[in-house]
Design brief:
The complex is a heterodimer of chains A (about 210) and B (about 500). Chain A is of the alpha+beta class and about 210 residues long. Chain A is about 50% helix and about 20% strand. In chain A, strands 1, 2, 3, 4 and 5 form a 5-stranded antiparallel sheet that branches. The N and C termini of chain A lie far apart (about 80 Å). Among the domains of chain B are: about 110 residues, 2-Layer Sandwich (Nucleotidyltransferase, domain 5), CATH 3.30.420; about 130 residues, no CATH class. Chain B contains 14 helices and 17 strands. In chain B, strands 3-2-1-4-8 form a 5-stranded mixed sheet, sandwiched between helices. In chain B, helix 4 packs across helix 8 and helix 5 packs across helix 6. Chain B is rod-shaped and about 190 Å long. In chain B, about 30% of the residues are buried. Classes of the chains: A alpha+beta (about 210), B alpha+beta (about 500). The interface between A and B is large, with 78 and 77 residues.
Chain lengths: ~210, ~500
């Protein structure tokens, strides 16, 4: 202790300056090592992500055609309102718009209340052998025209079908020549299928 | 640059100063011990601010004393030693303690040699030097240095070294390489005019010393005392006294030829003005070998603090270097990790926000939409076909046309409900323009034409009552329908895609 007491005044400056320098260096080193560990952690996280992505890609490979088809058509389905319950106002507008745009004969329409369907209940309503496993709704729509030639209805229907992405099922069409008149009464029964809320909104995107 | 060192050989009359750089002697100067000489010496040293100064004394005021203490370990032992040292009257200024070894008496004891130099002139001057910031490495005595530089190969237990100089003689008793006793005897020329007188005095002293050693129980009566004559006189002057002493050696003493100090110096040339033993001790000092240091701690402060500072600088620099190295390695590793993670992230595709759990639903929806889209039919195809079939038919007119797309009515499909096939049907209600042979023929033609169409799977002739309703009714296709009721034809169409494929 005595020796330390003797030497301290002479060595104070040196010891303190080295201590300060070493403390600074230690702090710098600690920062560097901390950053390094952060970078290492980031790297391992990235590796995990890559691995997860590879697993996901392997899993999704089987679903890829469906996913591609879905992503390709998602926006249009959403826009056409297939992912919501049927919007009758929208229908009004759509029918009027087609009417005006193509100068086609007048049409009277009747939209019936929608029917909620599950796989079992609406088997006969669905046009393919395998009805969807999702819950959907079916809305019958009846259109009635008075036309001079039966093919006038065809353009109309084509326009409507085109406007709804080819997803409007035409179930029945009838033409009848009214007695004593030169007009044909045409009547078509359509079925509109909707898939409201089968997929979460974030997946479907904003409408 | 080699370390600058000044070694002051301090004896009774004058100071010889050796200036060395490393182990190389640059100069040797002789000074008197008066004030002016000291001033000149200080001026010389101040030209070398980094040089260190050592004192090597061979002075009559050196005192040596052996103290035997009970062996106590640790701090208590040290305190006991310090108390004993404080009780020694010479331990006031420059002094040192060396451990000599253990003695097994009634109890186990340790022996220490106390060495002191009571030379006020030097003590005062040391403090002056300290104030002038001269770095003092130590104050050593030649007697203690001699033990270290005597060749150990002699294997002698009891040695009495006689270092002979013209005006003085130093007698050291060395037992098993340890100094126990040393004394300087002055031989002033006025008292001892002839070498013979000096030799008589030396012989007398040897006898006295031997009795003292026996009295101290360091030497037994029967033990032979080996006398080694070390010459410090110039030229051949020592030969005569040596022979004289050898001739009249006291009882129980054996003459041993002096070892070759110069050989022990390993080929270093002996500088002029120095004796072999002095030169050997100087070598020890220059090489920083541990020698008992008599200088007070406060005097050594400057030198040792400089050394400690140097060590601190070294230690600090080494630690700093290691830290810089570690930091550099850390930065490198970090950089590499960053580069790698950047590479990996570049491979990562932006995550599509379809979760795995949602994929089956997506598939179901997609398949539903796809199925719907591929099955949707418009009546235009069937109507066009009908129009083509009617070309050239003038006796029959269509009054109602019913196109349907619905599940098949076939009983086979009804049995297996899982595979319900949808088909297009076209139900045509006719009116006959006139009842003639021609009309009947046209009817048959029409039926044949319709049956021949690739799109038509089946043609049924229905009763008029069943015309519009979808009820199942079987008719006879070969007959001409009765004419009072409008005939109805039901065409079951093939799947367009199947027709295209066939």
């Amino acid at each position: 202790m005595k020796a330390i007491h003797h030497y301290w005044p002479a060595l104070r400056a040196t010891v303190l300056s080295w201590l300060v320098a070493l403390c600074l260096a230690t702090a710098a080193l600690a920062i560097v090592l901390h950053d390094q560990s952060g970078a290492e952690e980031d790297l391992s996280q990235a590796r995990n992500q890559l691995q997860q992505q590879q697993q996901r890609i392997a899993f999704e490979a089987g679903y890829q055609p469906d996913v591609d088809y879905f992503l390709m058509h998602r926006a249009s389905w959403q826009e056409l309102g297939f992912m919501q319950p049927p919007d009758f106002d929208h229908w009004d507008h759509a029918l009027v718009a087609i009417q005006q745009q193509f100068a086609l004969p007048h049409v009277a329409y009747e939209i019936q209340p929608m029917v909620s369907c599950s796989v079992v209940t609406c088997r006969s309503q669905w046009p393919t052998s395998q009805p969807p496993t999702l819950n959907f709704t079916m809305t019958p729509i009846q259109l009635t025209w008075s036309v001079s030639h039966e093919s006038a209805v065809m353009d109309w229907l084509q326009q409507l079908e085109h406007a709804f992405g080819g997803l409007l099922l035409v179930r029945r069409c009838g033409w009848r020549l009214a007695k004593g008149e030169e007009v044909i009464t045409a009547q078509c029964e359509l079925a509109l299928f909707n898939f409201p809320h089968v997929l979460p909104d974030d997946l479907m995107g904003e409408k | 640059m080699a370390k600058q060192h000044f070694i002051v050989l301090l004896d009774q009359t004058h100071w010889r100063v050796v200036h060395a750089s490393g182990t190389q002697v640059l100069a040797m100067r002789v000074f008197e011990s008066d004030e002016g000489s000291r001033r000149a010496l200080l001026d010389w040293w101040q030209q070398f601010p980094r040089a260190t100064v050592s004192f090597l004394t061979n002075h009559a005021d050196e005192h040596y004393h052996v103290e035997t203490l009970p062996q106590v370990r640790g701090a208590a032992g040290r305190q006991l030693l310090m108390r004993k040292l404080a009780a020694w009257p010479f331990a006031q200024g420059m002094h040192a303690v060396c451990r000599l070894g253990n003695v097994q008496g009634l109890r186990r004891e340790s022996r220490f040699l106390f060495a002191a130099l009571t030379y006020p002139l030097l003590a005062d001057w040391l403090s002056v030097l300290q104030k002038e910031s001269i770095r003092i490495q130590g104050v050593y005595t030649q007697a203690l240095g001699l033990v270290c530089c005597l060749p150990s190969s002699h294997g002698l237990t009891h040695v009495l070294c006689v270092q002979y100089a013209p005006k003085q003689v130093r007698i050291c008793y060395i037992q098993q390489q340890r100094l126990f006793f040393s004394r300087l005897i002055l031989l002033p020329p006025d008292t001892f005019p002839a070498p013979e007188d000096g030799v008589v005095r030396i012989a007398h002293e040897i006898t006295q010393i031997r009795m003292t050693l026996i009295h101290q129980h360091w030497l037994q009566e029967a033990d032979a005392l080996s006398i080694i004559w070390l010459n410090q006189a110039p030229g051949e002057a020592h030969l005569f006294p040596a022979q004289l002493l050898k001739a009249q050696l006291p009882a129980a003493c054996v003459w041993v030829e002096a070892p070759e100090m110069v050989q022990h110096l390993k080929g270093n040339v002996l500088p002029e003005g120095l004796h072999a033993t002095e030169w050997a001790t100087i070598q020890l000092i220059l090489k920083d070998r541990p020698l008992p240091n008599l200088a007070p701690e406060s005097v050594l402060l400057l030198d040792s603090s400089t050394r400690i500072k140097r060590r601190l600088h070294w230690a600090g620099a080494v630690m700093m270097g290691l830290m810089v190295l570690a930091g550099w390695a850390g930065v490198q590793a970090m950089h590499q990790a960053q580069v790698q993670s950047q590479q990996i992230r570049r491979q990562l595709k932006p995550a599509e926000h379809i979760k795995q759990a949602q994929l089956p639903d997506v598939r179901a929806l997609t398949q539903a939409m796809h199925g719907l889209q591929s099955t949707v039919r418009l009546p235009d195809h069937a109507v066009t076909m009908m129009q083509q079939a009617l070309t050239g038919i003038s006796h029959w007119q269509v009054i109602a046309l019913e196109w349907g797309f619905s599940a098949s009515d076939a009983p086979a499909d009804a049995a297996t409900k899982h595979a319900v096939a949808w088909q297009e049907t076209l139900t045509v209600t006719w009116s006959q323009g006139d009842q003639s042979e021609q009309a009947a023929i046209e009817w048959q033609q029409l039926l044949t034409r319709l049956r021949g169409l690739p799109e038509v799977e089946k043609v049924e002739v229905l009763m008029p009552s069943a015309s519009v309703s979808g009820a199942q009714r079987q008719g006879n296709t070969g007959q001409v329908p009765s004419l009072d009721q409008p005939p109805v034809l039901k065409l079951i169409l093939r799947d367009v895609s199947q027709v295209a494929a066939s």
